[in-house]
Amino acid sequence: MTYSFELPLLALLILTAAGAMIVKELISAVLILGAYSFFLALVWAWLGAADVAFVEAVVGAGLATVFFLLTLSQTSPEDTRIRRPPPPIIAVIALPLLGLLLLYAANDLPAFGDPGSPASVHVSPHYIENSLADTRTPNVVTSVLMDYRVLDTLIETVVVFTSGIACWLLLRRDAE
Amino acid sequence: MLELIEAALRRPNLVAFVLLLLWGLYITITHHNYVKKLVGLYIVQTSVIFFLVATGFKEGATVPVITGGNDDYVNPLPQVLTLTAIVVQIATLGVSLGLVSRIYRKFGSLDEDEVLEKLG
Hints:
The structure holds 2 protein chains of 2 kinds. Chain A is mainly α. Chain A folds into 2 domains: 1-84; 123-176, no CATH class. Helices cover 71% and strands 0% of the residues of chain A. In chain A, helix 1 packs antiparallel against helix 2 (26-46), helix 6 packs across helix 7 (140-148) and helix 7 packs across helix 8 (150-171). Chain A is globular and about 60 Å long. Chain B has one domain (2-119): Helix Hairpins. Chains A and B meet through helix 1, helix 2, helix 3, helix 4 and helix 6 of A and helix 1, helix 2, helix 3 and helix 4 of B.
């Protein structure tokens, strides 16, 4: 198993997430979040998820940053500085416990990159073997998204349309 | 204890997922600024998507585009499901940012405590 550039990439991912938590200025936090999204796209390209990497780079790093900046552009500068009240004691105690609980379950999960993991041997080989003959599309992700599960994608566009209507209703100038 | 640490180190995806999830949840719980809370929620969502995609990874496998060679391909199904999840995540993020800017227009503040004070 080669760890030449993967571990630095994961470290950068976690560092940028921490940076988005630490900085006191909201605009800096949003821009660091955009960098975080780009590192995430790189990680996904490494994991062999080219389509997800494209979508994350365009939608996550681009569109989400634009949305955040559009919201912040309407606010005055003194509102974008962050007050840091002391954290509630329940968060300081409960969150590390939750993390330990999740890590405790590590032994029950298949190892990272294991070709014999249950997720990789049960359903997905059928799609990898048959999708080219069924749909004439070399890209398995496209054929599953646009052919086998096209109803899912249709409902997804309904969700996006609904959220567009909701945004329009919320941001109308004459809404009272 | 030692074998637990070793088991976690053999799954760097799980460790990164847990760290990102906890950081996102911590931001969401402790900060009183609405935009900062949304930054935290965004990190939580992307951490879960990261974990799902990482479960489909196979050692020595390539991108699932069938080229005719005898290559091994990574599991395409988590990628398909997370593509949908990313788009829905951006849609909900847009709606929640719309709500935040509406709140800012009405109350003139992004801070949770000030808004609650003005609500009475």
